[in-house]
Backbone:
C-alpha cells in the first residue's frame, strides 16, 4: 500500500481533524525512528499512519480497537504482517516484540504529550519546544494524564534513553508543524 492510498482510507474512516493530525504525528515519529534504526521508513510510516484507522468506529468498544483496522486492511488485500502486528501492538492486542512494535507502542502516547506541551507553551509552536520543556511536562504526573508515562518509557527497551526518544520524536513532529497546525 502506498501512502496516498493510506491517506484516502484515513479520509474515508476518520472525520475528526485532530485525530488525523495525530496519525500524521505518529507517522512522522515512526519514520524518524525507522531512519534512526536503519529500518524501512515507508513501512514504519505506514504503520503509524494507519494505526488508529478504526478509532472512531470502535469508540466505546476498546476490545475491538486495532482488530477492526486489521480486518479493514486485510479486506483491501494488505498483507504486511509486520505492519498489522504493529497496529495490534500499539493498542495492547499483541505484546510488542520487535523494534517496530515497541516503537509504535511508545510513540502513540508521546505524540499526545508533545502536542499538550506545545499547547501549554507561551508560543504554542512546535518549533519553540525543546527536549527539556517536554521532559519537564513528562515528569508532571497530572499534566496530560492520559499520556501513559510507563508506555512512553518502553522506549528504553529499544536502547533509547527517554531524552533521546523525545528528541527524535520532537524533531520529527517539528518537520510537519504546518500539517499539525502548530
Residues:
Amino acid at each position: 500500500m502506498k501512502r496516498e492510498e493510506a491517506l484516502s482510507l484515513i479520509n474515508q474512516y476518520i472525520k475528526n481533524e485532530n485525530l488525523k493530525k495525530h496519525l500524521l504525528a505518529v507517522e512522522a515519529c515512526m519514520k524518524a525512528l525507522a531512519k534512526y534504526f536503519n529500518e524501512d521508513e515507508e513501512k514504519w510510516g505506514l504503520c503509524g499512519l494507519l494505526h488508529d484507522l478504526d478509532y472512531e468506529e470502535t469508540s466505546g468498544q476498546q476490545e475491538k480497537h486495532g482488530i477492526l483496522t486489521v480486518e479493514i486492511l486485510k479486506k483491501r488485500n494488505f498483507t504486511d504482517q509486520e505492519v498489522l502486528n504493529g497496529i495490534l501492538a500499539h493498542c495492547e492486542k499483541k505484546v510488542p516484540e520487535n523494534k517496530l512494535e515497541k516503537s509504535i507502542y511508545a510513540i502513540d502516547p508521546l505524540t499526545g504529550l508533545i502536542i499538550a506541551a506545545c499547547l501549554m507553551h507561551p508560543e504554542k509552536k512546535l518549533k519553540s519546544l525543546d527536549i527539556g520543556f517536554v521532559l519537564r511536562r513528562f515528569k508532571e504526573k497530572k499534566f496530560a494524564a492520559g499520556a501513559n508515562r510507563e508506555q512512553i518509557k518502553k522506549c528504553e527497551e529499544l536502547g533509547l534513553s527517554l531524552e533521546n526518544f523525545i528528541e527524535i520524536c520532537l524533531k520529527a513532529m517539528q518537520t510537519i508543524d504546518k500539517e499539525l497546525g502548530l
In short: Residues 3-180 form a domain with the Hypothetical protein af1432 fold (CATH 1.10.3210). The chain has ten helices and no strands. The first helix runs from residue 3 to 13.
